[in-house]
Amino acid sequence: MLNTFHVIKDPVHGSMQFSDQEDAWIKPFIDSVNFQRLRHVKQLGLGDSIFPGAVHTRFNHALGCCYVASQIANKLSLAEDDKQLVMIAGLLHDIGHGPFSHAFENIFKNKLIHHEDWTELFLNDYRLPEFLENYNHLNPRFMLTQERFSIIRNLIMHKEKTHQLLADIVSSQLDADRLDYLLRDSHFCGVSYGQYDLPWLLNCLTIIEDNHSERLGVTGKGIGVVEQYLTARRLMLRNVYLNGKKYAAEFQLTMFLNYLSKADETDFLENIKNHSLIRFLQAVREFNQSVDKGDNQLLKENFLKENYPLYKNLCDYDVHSMIRYLAGQHDQHPATELAKRLYHRRFPKVININHKNLDGAKELIAVLQKETQPWQVRLLELPHQAYQSDKDPILVKDHNKVENINVSSLLIGGLSNREESLLILCIDRSLLDHSAVKLFFKTGISH
Predict the structure, then answer these.
(1) Separation of alpha carbons 215 and 1, rounded Å
(2) What are 216's strand-pairing partners?
(3) Largest CA distance in the chain
(4) Are the beta carbons of 76 and 86 closer than 8 angstroms?
(5) Distance of CA 21 to the CA centre of its chain
(6) Contact 386, 230 (CB under 8 A)
(7) 3-class SS shares of the chain: helix, strand, coil, % to 5
């Protein structure tokens, strides 16, 4: 019988081909309401305010990750049932993201709640009998039992130890997630920082025996392309993911959402306080006020369970509509002021600070905070690492010898475990004529 394929045209990978069997594995998930929501959650938060082409979504990336996982499975000649697991896990790995992706996580005190915390609740929806019965009707040869779905859940939640090779494909420093998003984000941002030779990297992938466990690694021929890949990751971190203007815009967004959470305390917000976004943000405010006053873990679990029905229906549009509405108001409330700045792209002035001048920046902030509002000035510290060899090393097998790639590569050895940090001072442009700010610029302590 002639094999046929379902083809998804993709700007990054070209024609992504899925066999009829693979299509049956993933289509029930793709067609679900929870997954379709990702069409309306941008991959890079407010990144498109800086890189206009960056309007791609978590939906695009999830499909790409699933496809890359299938290609890795093919290269390693995985059994079909294992291939099914990594493809579904790759597809669903970002299902828990909220509006504007990572930017939305900043509304929680101490970042106690991340998208991964919501992921498990989304996955539980797929474990309901009705979904599994319909799924297994379409996949009689590759049914998903509760036990097999637990493996998918553990692969996504970084808790899978029995199937380590599959876990590496889904979540590691060489996983399908990173292999897709570096190329995808680079493409849509219109930059070349994230480019690397994916076909050759796939060709060089291999299974490596490590401490009686199978791990994902590369052959000796792959050292050069992994150098290219990790360099691309560092450049994307420095120039796109940690872009100062992007972070300044997302700081404004976080402060805007913080003021919206107090809608029930403000008369002029009376007509919007029953909006699902407002009700969710009010719950966040109560959560933040309770943090450190009791059992944070129990508090977190209760918050997730109680507010999941609201959260799973939120997307970028809910926030955009609120920004647009308030930008048209004429009062002086901070929420309105921030809405106008976000809607008309009037972001803060961004100053990159040399670490040796940190004290001077803190002195400036102390002066300004006495006569300004919290959203008008902020110092952001953005730590990052391109490669952590001590946490989750990329292994190289060359002539039956296995070693950490930072030993095989002088370049990667230099990047390995190298902690870097960017310091960014955000100042609202209405303060640029302030005498303290002018003095700050005049003394030249920024760089």
Answers:
(1) 35
(2) 207
(3) 79
(4) no
(5) 29
(6) yes
(7) 60, 15, 30
In terms of residues, how long is the chain? 447
**Residue 110 is encoded by which pair of tokens?**
């101490």
Q: 393 φ, ψ to 5°?
A: -70, 150
Structure tokens at 333: 């409330």
Amino acid occupying residue 54: A
C-alpha pair distances (Å), 176 with each of 64, 171, 276, 392: 9, 8, 34, 15
Q: How many CB atoms lie within 10 A of CB 270?
A: 10
Nearest to 437 by CA among 421, 426, 422: 426
DSSP strands (E only) in 211-301: 213-219
Instruction: Give me the DSSP letters along 167-196.
Output: HHHHSSTT-HHHHHHHHHHHHHHT-STT--
The answer to whether the CB of 144 falls within 8 A of the CB of 138 is: no
Residues 304 and 125: their CA atoms lie apart, in Å, by 14
| In the block, residue with structure tokens 């494909």 | 169
What pTM was computed for the model? Answer: 0.95
CA 417/CA 166 separation, integer angstroms: 25
CB-based contacts of 273: which residues, under 8 Å, 6+ apart? 263, 264, 279, 282
Tell me what the pLDDT averaged over the chain comes to.
Answer: 93
Phi, psi (5° rounding) for residue 229? -65, -45
Residue 421 backbone phi and psi in degrees, to 5: -155, 140
CB 436 within 8 A of CB 372: no
Q: What is the pLDDT of residues 53-90, one digit of tens each?
A: 999 999 999 999 999 999 999 999 999 999 999 999 99
- CA distances 413 to 322, 418, 422, Å, are 48, 9, 21
**Domains contained in the chain, CATH given:** 5-190 (1.10.3210.10), 243-344 (no CATH)
Q: Which residues on neighbouring strands pair with residue 15, listed in sequence order?
A: 9
Neighbouring residues of 4: CB distance < 8 A, sequence distance ≥ 6: 19, 20
252-277: per-residue pLDDT in tens? 999 999 999 887 777 767 778 789 99
